From TrEMBL:
Keywords: Hydrolase, Signal. Residues 1-19 form the signal peptide. Residues 27-354 form the Beta-lactamase-related domain. This is Class A beta-lactamase-related serine hydrolase. It comes from Pedobacter chitinilyticus. It comes from the Bacteria.
Length: 375
């Protein structure tokens, strides 16, 4: 009798979860149709366990290839958190300090000419409070180097460093160069060895180090039509052949070039959700993880490559990051207290924005939360 009762319970749980998953897939499917979204990958963590993963729609429109859970995306600005995590490792090893003069770290003068006495620190760079901007571009460090660009002063705003927030991609491409200068390793190799491999996840920055068959094609939506963005996965082999550590780093794009699946990104997210530890491996100290999650600007609530928001799920304060580039939109957010987190990535959508998030991203977060976490 006991075996029959246990079998009945198992069957009930299976049928309940199956119905639950069908409901999620129906609701997200309806949202995909409404927002003209090409493909969407999601992963949900609850109580430190992966409780759901699913791929919706197309990986490639041209040959109608369906998206799968193992497909990888260029996740754009969520990549910044990998650079900041690497910096925390180096700070813990006493190889640098968050309050170091960033110019000393990167190898050339970093000073806002309007505030020449104010030291611009690594902490300011990682929190977008450096007063540096992207007006001269961010795929070449020469733009802000006084000895290389006569217009270097244009790379700075008229705000005092450490006071005001301004999102800046150049900050993190320079941070990647610092990691190379300190470690003597190419940026992508460092991240793989010290973050990806210990967590047992697949991903990276260099195109040729990854399986091209797994790349989800990204589609930009312009003039009411989608077009593929081949630049998202440009191998840049010629530039890599003459790579100089601490100088050529923007080729790999620490600011936005990580390629990874939604499921593996969820494992990385779990590490931050647990203040530096996942899969039994500690990547950064608890103190370092909390520093990354502590807002240093208001109202942006941006810490060290992680931000805090209450605009994604009503009544919930979440920590994480978004990304957008080449038509892709990504979001990785978690609650370190309630121990849940959600990753949502789309490779193309015509959806409008609500509260700073593409509708398909926000709707998917809420569908997943209501069906898997709130219950």
């Amino acid at each position: 009798m006991k075996k029959l009762a246990l079998s009945a319970i198992i069957l009930f749980l299976y049928l309940s979860s199956h119905a639950q998953f069908e409901k999620i897939e129906r609701e997200i499917g309806e949202s995909l149709t409404k927002t003209e979204t090409i493909g969407l990958a999601v992963a949900v963590i609850k109580n430190n366990q992966l409780v759901y993963q699913h791929a919706f729609g197309k990986k490639n429109v041209e040959d109608s290839t369906p998206l799968s859970n193992s497909d990888i995306f260029r996740i754009a600005s969520i990549s910044k958190s990998f650079a900041a995590t690497s910096m925390m490792q180096l700070a813990e090893a006493k190889k640098l300090s968050l309050d170091d003069d960033f110019g000393n770290l990167v190898g050339f003068k970093i000073r806002n000419p309007k505030f020449p006495e104010t030291v611009i620190t690594l902490r300011m760079v990682l929190s977008h409070t450096s007063s540096i901007n992207d007006s001269q571009g961010y795929f070449n460090l020469d733009v802000i180097n006084p000895s290389k660009n006569p217009n270097w002063e244009k790379c700075y705003t008229d705000k005092q460093p450490g006071i005001s927030y301004l999102y800046c991609n150049l900050n993190f491409n320079m941070a990647g160069a610092v990691i190379e200068r300190i470690t003597g390793q190419r940026y992508d190799s460092y991240v793989k060895q010290h973050i990806l491999a210990p967590l047992n996840v697949y991903g990276g920055y260099c195109i040729d180090s990854l399986d091209a068959k797994r790349f989800a094609t990204l589609y930009e939506y312009e003039n009411k039509a989608f077009k593929p963005s081949p630049a998202a996965y440009a191998p840049r082999r010629e530039e890599l052949s003459t790579y100089q550590l601490g100088y050529s780093t923007p080729i790999l794009s620490p600011t936005g070039g990580m390629k990874i699946s939604a499921t593996d990104l969820a494992t990385y997210m779990t590490m931050h959700m647990n203040y530096g530890k996942a899969n039994g491996v500690r990547i950064i100290a608890k103190k370092s993880a909390k520093q990354m999650q502590t807002p240093l600007s208001s109202p942006e609530n941006y810490g060290l490559a992680l931000l805090t928001t209450n605009k994604l799920i009503s009544g919930k304060t979440l920590v994480g990051h978004t990304g957008s580039a080449y038509g892709l939109y990504s979001a990785m957010f978690f609650d370190p207290k309630e121990k849940f987190g959600i990753v949502v990535i789309t490779n193309g959508t015509s959806a409008k924005e609500t509260d700073g998030y593409k509708a398909i991203i926000k709707e998917s977060f809420n569908i997943l939360y209501q069906n898997l976490i709130a219950k």
